[in-house]
Specification:
Layout (H helix, E strand, L loop, with lengths): L5 E2 L3 E5 L3 H10 L6 E4 L2 H9 L1 H20 L4 H11 L8 E7 L7 H7 L6 E6 L4 H9 L5 E4 L5 H14 L3 H8 L4 H7 L2 H13 L2 E8 L2 E7 L4 E8 L3 H10 L4 H8 L3 E3 L1 H6 L7 E3 L1 E3 L3 E7 L12 H7 L19
Helix pairs in contact: 3-4, 3-8, 11-12
Length: 335
């Protein structure tokens, strides 16, 4: 697998004219998904069409970070500042819309057509009589996935399909952050073996949002409690540069030899980026054949903390009830 350059949580919207079916989905879908449920197409369309301004504002904020990086400002302090200041509604911006095809007022494809260039992924739920229509829609790239309602283990299959779509990197943001990576760095994280190891690290540390950057090379990540992490990535050919940096701050001969042997990594670039004068050595782990990595926690004062954490965002969300009566004004105004 290829480790995504940029990833963060996103919301899932369900539209079905059967309230009982929606209530069943609300009970069985993963608890860590922000979910909205609609029975009326017009309400679902109105909800999704209000998102573009908020989505564009968030994308612009990230592009501004990249513009300032090109002008000489460091990426790490800017990203950490963005996470401290950004509103948590960004976690709820819908990434997947699941629509039943057979509805009395509008069929599912008509609803999706009304959404125009809404950038999320589209999933169509179908009955037996609708499957040929779904196949044609899929082949015409009108939907990313269709799931027959009569399929065995429908809820498991649907959840797996949605999760795959949520795991896809966000297009414009990922493309923007890719500009910080050299061709060699991009090749490293595109290695399937390294990608699997990076994904395992992300899951072990419960990272819900991350960005891969090339200056310095590594992954800046957030867990669900608002704790930020730095995953330093180094190619074995760069160890002598780390040795020189370590020697310049007075590390001992034994410590320098541990860097040269690939047993430890020196995190001087990261500490320089956050304005700290306390760099040190951290145990190295192997990624693939020639890559080394080490993980460290970012000082809590530099991260968003629990008040702006994903876990807090999920707790503050309304219960999974039908949203048809929920006012749309201010839906994204929460901090």
């Amino acid at each position: 697998m290829i480790f995504p350059i940029y990833r963060r949580p996103g919301g899932v919207v369900f539209l079905d004219d059967d309230p009982a079916y929606l209530e069943m989905l609300a009970e069985v879908m993963p608890e860590h998904w922000p979910i909205r449920l609609f029975t009326r197409p017009a309400d679902c369309i109105a909800y999704l069409q209000q998102e573009p301004a908020e989505r564009e504002a968030d994308t612009w904020r990230q592009m501004d970070i990249l513009d300032k990086w090109r002008s000489g400002q460091g990426l790490i302090p800017q990203i950490l500042r963005y996470w401290r200041e950004a509103a948590t509604w960004r976690f709820g911006l819908a990434q997947v819309c699941v629509v039943d095809y057979s509805m009395p007022a509008m069929n599912g494809l008509q609803v999706l057509e009304e959404l125009g260039d809404w950038p999320g992924a589209r999933v169509l739920l179908t009955g037996r009589a609708d499957e040929q229509i779904a196949v044609q829609a899929f082949n015409a790239s009108l939907i990313e996935q269709y799931v027959p309602k009569q399929a065995s283990e429908i809820t498991r299959r649907l959840a797996q399909s949605i999760q795959r779509l949520l795991d896809d990197p966000l297009g414009r943001q990922a493309q923007g952050w890719r500009a910080t990576l050299s061709r060699e760095q991009m090749a490293m994280i595109s290695n399937p073996q390294i990608g699997r190891q990076l994904q395992a690290l992300a899951e072990a540390h419960r990272w819900i949002e991350h960005v891969v950057i090339g200056d310095p090379f590594g992954v800046l990540a957030l867990d669900d409690s608002g704790q930020a992490f730095w995953l330093q990535l180094e190619h074995a050919s760069r160890l002598e540069e780390l040795v020189e940096m370590a020697a310049s701050v007075g590390l001992s001969g034994a410590e320098i030899q541990a860097i040269r042997d690939g047993q430890h990594l020196f995190d001087g670039e990261f500490h320089l980026a956050i304005g700290s004068d306390r760099p040190g050595l951290l145990p190295a782990m192997a990624l693939g054949e020639r890559m080394l990595a080490t993980v460290s926690k970012v000082p809590e004062t530099l991260g968003p903390g629990p008040e702006r954490a994903y876990a807090r965002f999920l707790r503050d969300q309304a219960s999974r009830e039908l949203d048809d009566e929920t006012p749309l004004v201010g839906a994204f105004s929460q901090a």
